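Treating backbone geometry as a discrete language has practical consequences that deserve illustration. The amino acid sequence and the backbone structure tokens for this protein are reproduced below.
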Amino acid sequence: MTMTSRERMMRTLEFDKPDRIPRQIWMLPVVWLDHERKDVEAFLGRWPVDITGAPLVNPNPSPVRLGDAYVVGRYRDEWGCEFENIKAGIHGQVKAPILADWSRLEDLRPPVESLDFDREVVNAFCRETDKFVMASACPRPFERMQFLRGSENLYMDLGEESPEVLSLLDIIHRFHLKEMEAWAQTDVDSLTFMDDWGSQQGLLISPAQWRRLFKPLYLDYVRIAHDSGKKIFMHSDGNIQSIYGDIVEIGVDAVNSQLFCMDIEEIGRRYAGKITFWGEIDRQHVLVRGDRQDARSAVKRVVDNLYRPEGGVIAQFSMEESVKLSQCDAVFEAWQELAQ
């Protein structure tokens, strides 16, 4: 029986024997600059995806947002954070954080306008597609703190757990709760949150501090999703193996992480069958410098350790700077062959 994308995704997340492994691609705009448009379009045509994002129509846009995040120059987001970008097609960095001085904390204004998106447009889109629809909001409290305060300052703040940094975390979290609750009232299939927690070797703060300060926030997001009948997805780059068990424990349905920074075999022994692995394949080496055999070997490692015939894996990877389209084809071909 051929399933719709939505049915396929739900079967995967619930370990209920989907007709095939579902697919998703993350693609930075730089891919369209690095390759001929016809080649990218042909690749996308060969591998239709099962997940899409909800449209975001807001009649009351942020008064502070300015520019384009993916062009060379400066971009200001809805919180007022200014990013400097030196290469088209990728995202820039904050060089002058607006809360470098704590005296400005009392003036911080969350972007409440983003809560006024058009729900009916979202619901109509969900009714008209058979794809699995994700909300177009993605809380990222740890990263937002870095954008506002600056990474170096923030790590010092967390070392001291100063009253100001705890107040900042509370302001951000209270706004994200409203954001998640607003999207939970729509017809999307899932909510999503993220924070890049890992370096190449391990967590950027101690697991104990992560559990004390951030795990309860993420649990709130999970509860909002599940209380409204939605699935909940989480993304984090880097080596997050030390908190994988916590992510499973709080009830995240699918986790996207850089598996090849970690011990995939150990993760499989501990957590396969308990959570869906939302990709990915090594974008540091395999997708940019590997050959077809490297691609097949990488997929086989994921399938052998994490996949179950009942479900539990989404064939996802991120297409970024210098990615080879031939490698991306090889990855999907391997998943199609091996995930049976």
The chain has one domain: 5-55+108-338.
